Structures are given as C-alpha cells and as structure tokens.
Amino acid sequence: MDRSSQVSSPDRQTAPQVPDEAATRAAFFEAFGGVRGMVETTVPGLVFVLSYTINRSINVSAIAALALSAVLGVARLVQRGTAKHALSGVLGVGFGALFAMISGDAKNFYLPGMLYTLGLAVAYLVTAAAGVPLLGLMLGPAFRENLSWRTRNPGRKAAYTRASYVWGGILLAKSAITFPIYFWGDATQLGWLRVALGIPPFLLAVYFTWIILVKAPAPIDVIAEWEEREAAREAAKRGEAPERGTAGPAAEHGR
Fold first, then answer.
1. Domain region containing 163
2. Nearest-10 crossing angle of helices 83-103, 34-55
3. Is residue 2 in some structural domain?
4. Where do transmembrane segments lie in this chain (predicted)?
5. How far from each other are the two terminal CA atoms of the chain, in whole angstroms?
6. Would you say residue 5 lies in a domain?
C-alpha cells in the first residue's frame, strides 16, 4: 500500500486515546483571549462605574471607558495580538457607551453586554441540544480538528456537548442575576455587580470545560492530515519527473 493511501485512510486517528494537555491549554488561550482578555473585558466596565459613582456624568464615564478600551485594543494590535479580541472589546464598550449617552440612562451602558451574555447562553444550550455544540465550532479550528469531531470523533463531540451545556447554564445563571438589577436597581448597583460577575463565572466555565476536554479523546489533526496528503502528492510528482525527463531525450535521439 502506498503512503498516500495510508494517509487518506478514513480510519486513521479516528479513536485517539491520549489528549494533549499542552495543546488544550494553548487552544483555550487562543479562543478565549487568556487572562489578558478577561482583564480587557472587565476593566472598562470598572472605569465606567467608578467614574459614574464619583461624578454622576454618563458622558464623561462612557467616554473614559471607551477611551481605555481603545487603548487596550491598540496595544494588542501593536503587540501583534489577535485582532478579534482587540476589536470585540472596543465594539462592545462602544455600543454600551452609545446606548448610555443616547438614552440618558447609565444602566444602558451594560445592556449590550447583558444581551450578548443572554444570547450566548441560549446559543450554547440550543446548539448542544441540536447536536452541533457551539464550543466545538469555536475550539475546532484552534485544535486544528475543524469539524472532524462531528463524524470521526464521537467521544470528543460528546465532550463538546457537555461543555456547551456547562457554558450555557453558567451564562444563563449570570443573566438571571443581572437582569433583575437592571430593571429594579440603580446604575451603580448594576455596575458593581457586573464587575463582580465579570471574571469568576468565566473562570468557572473554563475550569469545567478543561476537566471535560482533558478526559475526552484527543482531537484529530485534520490540518496535519491534509499537509501529509499534499506532501505525498508532491513526492509522487517529483518521482514521475525524472521518468518524463529521461524519456524525452531518448525519443529525440530515436527521431
């Protein structure tokens, strides 16, 4: 059997047994932005509530939070960080600042983020129930497995499904705590609550996801498989080239 047929065999790597903890850790940091991402998500909200508590000015507080978020985003880009993390933070704070200034209600600074959290919770739960867990769609590219977990790695699909339920449940609980304060509390209460609930639920979800995925089958590296197939094709082409080159002069000599 030639090498290319071995590489393309559908049974290859279908039941990996040993998960790579280093790869899991690296993929988590890539997908979720790591500690820096958590700080960048939380600090602008902290600046807003601190400023509003002191001066009671929505415009000043919103502009201060937006300016800080922009500085953090530019710093990421200058340091060649992931653009999606830099831009998502600025856009999130920007929408909040716009909502607060237009409505004249400081609580609306937090409304876009609250709606995003609620929508994300529903997305995690619905996609998990549908058999296409959102966490798998997010982490698949980071693990270089893309969507191979759907058909070739059932144990990993089950792990992604369980982890997506965990994320959905935690984010839904966070929404259940914050929305009543939005409707019946004041802006400072909501602001400090949002700051307090910024990092701990995220860390809890990441912890449980780590526990679930480390025990799951390792990802199938479909990128490596594709690279091997391409290398085999290139090697086969190079092997044919001398034969064509040798036949050419002989034919010319015969003529």
1. 16-236
2. 20
3. no
4. 58-78, 85-102, 114-143, 164-185, 191-213
5. 38
6. no
pTM: 0.78
Kindly write down the DSSP assignment for every residue of the chain, as one continuous string: --HHHHHT-TTTTSS--S--HHHHHHHHHHHH-HHHHHHHHHHHHHHHHHHHHHH--HHHHHHHHHHHHHHHHHHHHHTT--HHHHHHHHHHHHHHHHHHHHHT-GGGGSHHHHHHHHHHHHHHHHHHHTT--HHHHHHTTTTT-TTHHHHT-HHHHHHHHHHHHHHHHHHHHHHHHHHHHHHHS-HHHHHHHHHHTTSHHHHHHHHHHHHHHHTSPPPP-HHHHHHHHHHHHHHHHHHHHHHHHHHHHHHHHH-
And the tokens for 11? Answer: 């049974």
108-160 pLDDT per residue, tens: 999 999 999 999 999 999 999 999 999 999 888 888 899 999 999 999 999 99
Domain count, the chain: 1
pLDDT of residue 34: 67
Judge whether 127 lies within some domain: yes
